[in-house]
Prior knowledge:
The structure holds two protein chains of two kinds. By secondary structure, chain A is an alpha/beta fold.
Amino acid sequence: MTGRVLLIEDEQNIAEAIRFLLSRDGFEVEVQRDGVAGLQAARAAPPGLVILDLMLPGLSGIEILTALRADPRTERLPVMMLTAKGQGRDREAAEAAGVSVFMSKPFANAEMRAQVRALMGM
Amino acid sequence: MPISALTGTRLRERRLALGLRQAELAASAGISASYLNLIEHNRRRISPALLEDLARALGVPAAALQEGAEAAILDELRSAAAAVPAAGAELDRAEDFAGRFPGWAAALVQQGLRAAALERVVEALNDRMSHDPHLSASLHEVLSAVSSVRSTAAILADTEDIEPEWRERFHRNLHEDSERLAAGAEALVAYLDTAGQAEEQGIASPQEEMEFWAAEHGWALAGAETSGLASGAARVLARAAVAQAEADARALPEPEFSAALAELGPDPSALAARFGSGVLAAFRRIALREGAAAGLVICDASGTLLLRKPLPGFALPRFGSACPLWPLFAALARPVSPIEAVIATPGPQGRRFRVRAFCQPRHPGGFRGPELREAAMLILPEPAGGEAALPVGSTCRICQREDCAARREPSILTG
């Protein structure tokens, strides 16, 4: 399994914090800030884990997740979904689309890092 | 005539339908807004003289606020009992109960009404939480900033050997996010607070805020200052209204417009033809001027009212949908066809108005885009007598026309 994480998040400051934390934990982190570019990056070189924001410009997190699950190359990829709307229908939609782990913003760094390690099989 | 326990409720419904604030109505009757508030919530009995004054200010006969009160109490008692069927209230003895214990009956009715009013508030707030894009976007903005602050601050607190350039970048990010958080929190507070409208339990919408602002400017909006509005959403609406008013003033400029209006009268088609402008622009120019004796309502294809400029005596609904018999909606179904009618409002002192309505479709996306429709209805005072009038109302809840074929829900004014 590769130690590469694809982070699709349009909030630059959150992306920087996550990139810093995961880089320190030894992961290689690629950041994409747009849904369409993020999906292309995941298809072009499937990473070990995708961290996906729910509300993105271009394509929503749910749309990206659905597309990943429909493609044999990415259907088993672990996907962590981040969202500021951690409740109810969004959560249900993400679960129905096959999300691996759901993380509500604001999250604790330690919890996020532990989930990433678990999803990467470490 | 004894004054009914529900007179306050009816006063309040009527005032809200007219879009009047408590302070405005109270001032016109020479009482304080807080006293009116107590009356409206049926906590003070109102004297016959004060009732007369308030009824006059609301444009209804005092009797309309009381008629059928006894029957209304019985209905309210029955519906209060129906809400708790397990209690086994003796429905066949409601009249007996109200007659023997009028105070207890009134208390029960008021509790029932209060529960219903609270349910409506909860419903409105729920609806607002789940469907209001403005609120949802504001909350998202605040939560995003909080997330970033939390992660970044924890990194700075927990990482001892952080490189100077990262530390500097995170400090900058923290500063940016705290500014963003402050702005987001302020916008949320302004939106939820709906400044100065606490008496309406905070259910004023950005549209109402914009209309109140427009009324304060005498509806002459070209060049009007929008920064005084409390919520960002209302400022967006107000800026759009200002831009529209300025475009309309260029299409139908002064002093030629006033001269043409004096010559042709408030006829949007004739004025639009004279200036080569759009017909809806002429509607707005006629009604949205300082001192114009004309009301105006504008709706989109769903029938949602986008703008409500009231005219004394013609109540415009604040919540819910308008009377489906308005010629505005006939125009919506027949685009680009001018419709003129004389309408009459309900009640013994119902008034007559001449209305002109027109619907203009637009295709901003060209051949492949959707058709958007906007319809306008100009409301002009009409003298008594003359041609037969189309009976219409404001909205079903406060309309007295019991056997109207278009009725959607029961009225609170009929017992």
